[in-house]
Amino acid sequence: MRKIVLSMVLLGFTGWLYAGGAAEKVMVSDAYVRAVPPGQPNSASFMVLSNHSAEDLVLVGAESDVAKAVELHSHTMKDGMMRMRQVEKIDLPAGETVQLQPGGLHVMVIGLQQKLVPGEKIDMALVFSDGSKLDLKVPVVKLQMTMQKPAMKHDMQHKMH
Ligand SMILES: [Cu+2]
To answer: Which of 55, 127, 150, 160 holds its CA 20 to 30 A away from the CA of 41?
Structure first.
């Protein structure tokens, strides 16, 4: 019990310590995570990241309890094929907006531990290079038919990892 209280105090302190960190300077909008058919182990999350500060910031990772692993990914065209790969970071230059979108940068959710139910929200945290974290409630969205094609291709590629 004492241990739990202690870690809560430490967490609180950490939050205070990072109050001026990158997490406070980045605005996230239009975040969503894609609902996937049963048996599909992976999904992806997309969002718009705006850095309104005068400082270059760097996203270095993301965390969520819904999956075994959460990675930052990009899509690149190679030999006429869309391939995705893990990236170590996503740069957020001062004053700029970076889009995480299907076919481009995304947060890959690998090894789902729970069903992603459309309309519900999952907890996700973005991790920045200064160690600060931004907690998000990301809605689960079932993409429309017209948008599903590239998303499915994305999944097929991922199974090859
Ligand atoms: Cu991916």
So the answer is: 127
In a domain, 78, yes or no: yes
In a domain, 50, yes or no: yes
Q: Which residues contact 22 (CB under 8 A, 6 or more apart)?
A: 55, 57, 58, 128, 129, 130, 132
Q: How confident is the chain (161 residues) per 10-residue block, as mean pLDDT?
A: 57 51 95 93 97 96 97 90 93 97 95 95 97 96 63 48 42
Number of domains observed in the structure of the chain: 1
Whole-number Å distance, alpha carbon 73 to ligand 1 midpoint, is 5
Ligand 1 mean position, distance from CA 20 (Å): 31
Q: Could you tell me the distance, in angstroms and rounded to a whole number, from the CA of residue 87 to the centre of ligand 1?
A: 10
Inside any domain, residue 68: yes
Task: Domain of residue 31: give its range.
Answer: 21-159
- What's the confidence (pLDDT) of residue 7? 56
CATH number, domain with residue 116: 2.60.40.1890
- Cα of 74 vs centre of ligand 1, distance in Å, is 7
